[in-house]
Structures
1.
Amino acid sequence: MELIIERLIWVVNGFLAILYSLADHVVALLFTAAATAFIVTTSAEQRAWALGAGVLSIAASLLAPAPVPVFLLVMILGGWAAVTLEKYNPPAQRWNVIRGLGLYAMAGLGFMIYRNFGLGESVLTDPMMSQGAGYLNALIGVAMYVIPLGFLAMLAQAIWAHPPAPGTPAELITKVRTRGRG
């Protein structure tokens, strides 16, 4: 009887460990689901690039410190919204999402490597190098917030401000942009 109780305790502890791990990585799991759906719905021409950016992004979402996982989730959800709203050139908008996710994933993985391997701490013995490391830390910290915001601004700009198509007459552009009142 004691052996059964001991084994039951081990099973319950294992289950609780899995639940705690899932709760700790809920953002990464949500991102993985959204990114997988994005990759699957991408056209064949862009799928290899979407898969590469997706794998990098999932790795960054799992490994990189905050704020990277949260911003990756915000970026993929914003990307889904932009591709859904885009009526002018959806493949180009999807490509913008792939590029943005790939860029931020590489930045996030670089941030993880810089932070986890103590690359900024190895220069703290020299005062001049310490000042440079402080400046570099500030730049990295700002970049981890600015890149996603710039990405979302780029998506919004691409939805609402389209360049004219080649050969489009200027009066048609004016008529469309002013809704016939110009």
Note: Helices lie at 2-24, 26-40, 44-63, 68-85, 90-116, 127-160, 170-178.
2.
Amino acid sequence: MKKITKILCCILGFGFLLGGCATVGSINNSSEELIYNGNSAVMVDGYLYYGNAFSDISSFSSDSDYKTAARLSYLARLNTNIDLEAKNKDYSPKNVEKVTTEVAGHTNDFMFVLGNHIYYATPNRQKAIDSEGNANNYYNYTTLYRSQLNGDGKSKIYTTNGEITQIEVLKYDGNYYIVMLAGTDLIKIQIGSRVSASVIAEDVVSVAIPKTYQKDKVGSTLDWNGYIFFTTTRTDEENADISGSDVQRILISDGDAEVVFHEQGTTVTFIGREKDVLFYTMTGHETEVFMSDVTGDNSKNAFRNNRKTFFSASSISNITLISTGTVDYGYVFTNSSGALLYSDIRNNRSGAISLQSAGEPISDYNVLFVSGRTVYLSTTTSIYKADISSLFNGGSATISCETVVTMTAIYDGTFYAYDGTYIYFYARLEEVEEDEESSEETDEEEETDENYYLYRTKASKNSEADAGTPYELLGKTQIESRQTK
């Protein structure tokens, strides 16, 4: 399939400055590399940028809903180089700044910094025409913005025509690219001093994109071969019996897509990628998950020639490499029931991991992220860390987890950030024990606030002082009674 270079002029806003004066003070980013800490926050020289509160965009039915959410879920900034000026851990700090007014904390969260610009995703507000010619809002589609770190020079750089199922930021040959699958469009946006975008493949069913580099996660890397792999459905107008899928690849820097694998009647579906190791399922092999390690092999037949069975299951998800950066130990992943499993590639072992806290099993959890050989998990009430080093050295698959933080209501989706010291997450406000000054009787009803705000907790508790402050509220609350005066 030839490369598609059409530019969607109707939805791109390159150079479309939304301008105005800077909203916060200017800072300079000392890092020359991409900064990505997770989808909910990004740390730049001690200044934390984040979605102040979390909004579930599935509840949006009108622009009024968007505007209401924007009052709390805006892009905020907090200078953490100084002590947080807060009454205590349960009160918003004084110095929360609003950088931009768009909804930045939401179901399709994504943000990162490159140079002196921050890039962030917001729910789409542009109406789209449906098949019957009606104009509708699709808030599950995404608009990408970028602005200077003080909120100045804001510009809209892309609006998707479908919901994003994967988005990453990659560096190849000295250039940076946002790569995403939105609906059935595979999109490339080159970023930096200039911004340009193109749909590089249409009618895409699945894709294998390397994960965004995150310097604070042990084992994360910028190394990859420059090829994006994807699948499309095989069709032939002259032969209705043609079926299955084409596996294709395209070099991110330039070039046309080329078919690297197809077999009549065989459908390949990508389910993950770590560096240059591709994971996928194939029809006709319903009880097997396959992998193709194409590291160092850029030949056209690399996908086929390096294929082998990875795990016996109908499907798996959330595949993550376990690595110290110098040694790759294997992978952890989840099955269809959400249970954590592992594959030890050095010792040829695999199986289920039993996670426990204080001798009791942990269930109904999501994997937040993995750093090195430590897995961080979240339930609706706790965040845990599981050191699985012993497992990849022949030890037991029963792992005792350390509780990082416990709260009444944690938003336990895949929304997090990690800067090497703190884990950032969304949770509802905790009840505060009244002190003597505030315990006087009053006729006023107690204010309630059911929103999820950004918090932080230390990933490692190294002292009694750390243990005494299990979390800190960072978001600025809706109710004034929980704001530090």
Note: The longest helix spans residues 63-70.
3.
Amino acid sequence: MKKITKAVILCSVRAYISLNKLAQKVKNAMTLNASTFPGTAAQVATLGTDQTTFAGYIANAKGNSTITNQRNEQAATVLADLQALLGPVNNVAKGNTAIIALSGFPNSADPTPQSIPAKIVIKRIVDGPTTLSAKIFIESLKLRNLTYTVRTTTVAGAGVNDPSWKVVLTTTSMKKLIIPNLTHLQEIYVDICAGNAHGTGLFSDPMPFSA
């Protein structure tokens, strides 16, 4: 079966300059070609607002830890805005590279075809194979050569850049997402992201667990 060409994102949440340029390009292209992508006006407007805020944080982040943290959080927001537009663009384009180009997104037929991983979705967390461990089940991203990073915190409602988050596991196998050495009856919150050669995707929504 012939592989369908799709709109993709080829920069990571930490590639601030590239991410900002892509967001601006997509905003401008999809505004100019709004009739090609019906029903996306509100999402494009949101992207435009978030991108403008993001650009301001980038310009003023140097030497200011508060604005740096705001920039990092806004990067995740902008990346999520872009990811939300991939579906509508691909539904219209149906593999047509010329239509994808009208959106401002690169396409998967470009020389660097593999995009950064999408946001992980945790399906469930259960008791692991050993005492006081947890096994995480996620929805497959259907991409090769991924590295998964698992973090935990005991702080309810902690933001994605909250310093309470601690990396507890790094693995290249989604079948080995097992957190060891947990504390009995202590509630933790778990999130996970995936990365590849193109960058690192967004962390999942946190899920609580108690061993």
Note: The chain has a mean pLDDT of 92.
4.
Amino acid sequence: MSPIGRVFIVLNLALAGGFVVVSGTHLQKQHNYKEQLTQEQDKHKKAVDLLSQQVGQLERERNSFENLKTEKETALGAAQNQIAQLRDENKRLNETTSSQAADIKQLVSLAQSNNTETKAAFAKAQEAFAQSVAAQTVRDEAVRVKDATVAENRGLTNKIAELTDAVAKRDGDIAALTSDKSELQLLVKVAETNGFIRSMAAPNLSGMVTTSSGRLCTIQVTDNPGNINIKDAIEGGKFSFAIYDASGYKGEAFAERFEESANAILCKIFPVKGEIKTGDKAATKTP
């Protein structure tokens, strides 16, 4: 065999050996890659299963929170209605108490006047009786006057007794009204102890900012579904409007005074995001 042929044989053997080595290394790496891929797929599947479990748990928690929110909102609505009824009842009781106080004052004045008239009638009867000693005619007249005076006095005495009974009854009514008022105040305090805030009892009003200058603005009331007395509501407890536009919430406006002729409320504003401008919307309940 020629030298060149031998060289080719050696080269072929070297190339064959190199190919075997490279093929073995490649197969080994390919096997390692497959194992790594399988491991990563297992890890990924476990991670996906874990995330699915967490998502399910979060969904259950969210449903639970939504149910709790609905329950609390229902309880809040009931408490607000009860507070509104208690305020109306308290107002009515105060008005009744004032009216009864005026009636009692009038009854006392009438009783004092009747007492004065009774004393005058007795004095007149005594004078007539004294004059009857001097003349029979005068005496008869005095007897008549005396009888009439006694009858009038009897009527006045009965009237005084009736007035006294009426005063005693009014005193009892006032005591009952005072007790009712105390119970109403206690109910409000109990509600506050359970988390109620007076501002939560704000009336359901909606409107639009018509003027805005510095720290003051005017809100034109456009929606009053409960047809509440806004002036009384402001005097009963300050409440606020949430101011917003298309971009979202912008700040709070606290009611100060109601202008009935314009159906508008003067408010102090506390900007939070952006400038409160004419045309912004306002609502006591978050839309």
Note: The two ends are 101 Å apart (CA to CA).
